Prior knowledge:
The structure holds two protein chains of two kinds. Helix content of chain A is 24%, strand content 36%. By secondary structure, chain A is of the alpha/beta class.
Amino acid sequence: MFNAITHSQMYVLDQDEALDFYVGKLGLEVAADVDLGFMRWLAVSVPGHPERQILLEKPGAPAMSEETAAQVRDLVTKGAMGGWVILTTDDCRKTYETLRAQGVEFIEKPTERPYGTDCGLRDPFGNRLRFTQPKTAG
Amino acid sequence: MSRASEDSNRRMLRARDAMDRAYAQPLDVPALARLAHVSEAHFSRTFRATFGETPHRYLQRRRVERAMFLLRETDRSVTDICFEVGFGSTGTFSRTFRDVVGRSPRAYRKEAVATGVPTCFTMAWTRPSV
């Protein structure tokens, strides 16, 4: 049957701002940035891992009505949209300090968990992300 | 839905995140209102319009959720947990816990099972209903 998850999707309210955040601050890399005419296909991945991409999609017409897009934006900004991700890192605390110095909005400091050390943050739009330093990683 | 309401949502979310972090401290409406760029007088109303409940109730549910976690995962005494999550007296704690969960802290502890999923889910989904 299946052998990988290659693409997942998150809604962002502004793709340039999303690029600044996901690439400029979080250090992900652009896996695709293509103007298809009807939409801008913007996807990011962990550097060196294009096999797993996150599509940063802007909600709007004609994919959905303007009214629906407004509802999506409403949910994103309330932190209720979902579409979040968990990343892994070799050093949770160091990554936290680096990102915090860049003004990334953290919702949870690095905390020891049974599965490792992790913390939580929000993107500029309200989406939730976490990153974990798994216990097995040195 | 205008851009203004999205900005308002996002700022209220920032304030709610701050409440989630500082759940054991008293509700600091002036600080939260500053974070959300609204007046103190408007903070509760705007929070309620955004999230469907008052900041006070949200904080109570957050504290009870933390208490439930500590009751499940630790052996600490109920009194200890009460103060740890920010309640000022065991009376208020028991009353609020029972009101929100429908059982006493001790009864809850007896029936609880430990969970093993990322913390943000446990936090959101074990937060008792409004």
